[in-house]
Amino acid sequence: MSELSEQIKQIIETEPVSLFMKGTPQLVMCGNSDRALRALRAAGAPVTAVDVLPDPQIRQELSALSGWPTIPQVFIRGELVGGADIVEELHASGELQRKLDEALGAERETTERTAVLA
Amino acid sequence: MAETATLESLLRDSFPDASELAVEDRTGGGDHFQVTIASSRFDGLSLVEQHRLVYEALEAPLGNGSIHELRIKTRGMA
Q1: ipTM of the complex model
Q2: What is the value of pTM for the model shown?
Q3: Residue-range definition of the domain harbouring residue B45
Q4: For residue A39, what is the domain's CATH number?
Q5: Do A69 and B62 touch (CB under 8 A)?
Q6: Which of A12, A46, A63, A105 has the smallest C-beta neighbourhood within 10 Å, fewest atoms?
């Protein structure tokens, strides 16, 4: 496994909620990444964002790990929750919040941060 | 570029029992699509598993870059 792949895996497995997106939460570069981010924020999720745009390799390695072909990708405690459509759908039904409560507790931090892959 | 009819036929092959199957070209440019499918193949599956089946059905056009964006709405029939 490449070093980059290890780094991605590490983020997926150790961060409470990771969002692999185009751009950053401060400067979102894609409508779908924006939809996923908004749903996560609305559900009160702590978000660790990773921008896939700086290096095409990030996206390749990520999709190889997750078996999911598109960006964004959202993981809660290591589990792939889905892309923008699923995260929006789960938020609309209240399921996203339930998942977050279950995985992270109802009294969770909701800080947002950006992880940069070296 | 992908044709709505091509995507529809790929999906029809994978979900022959679909009670609803629609492909919409969202921008008219042949690269942003919305697909909506109701099929018994989705019964009992998580949304991630359901969307994976759609990605599998459209592996060719997704793989050759002719689709830039794919929005997916799936439901089972149970």
Answers
A1: 0.90
A2: 0.94
A3: 4-75
A4: 3.40.30.10
A5: yes
A6: A105
**Chain A residues within 8 A of B73 when measuring between CB atoms:** 85, 89
> Which domain, by its residues, includes A69?
3-114
For chain B, the domain total comes to: 1
Split chain A (118 residues) into runs of 10 and give each run's mean pLDDT.
Answer: 95 98 97 97 97 96 96 97 98 97 93 91
* Alpha-carbon gap, residue A34 to A68, rounded angstroms: 18
How many domains, chain A? 1
Inter-chain contact A85–B55, Cβ cutoff 8 Å? no
Residues of B in contact with A84 (CB under 8 A): 71
- CB-closest option in A67, A70, A82 to B70: A70
**Rounded to whole angstroms, how far apart are CA atoms A30 and A45?**
20
pLDDT digits (tens, 9 = 90+) for B23-50: 999 999 999 999 999 999 999 999 999 9
- Determine the Cα–Cα distance for residues A46 and B67; give it in Å rounded to an integer: 31
Q: Which residues of B touch A69 (CB under 8 A)?
A: 55, 62
**Can you give the CATH number for the domain in which B36 is found?**
3.30.300.90
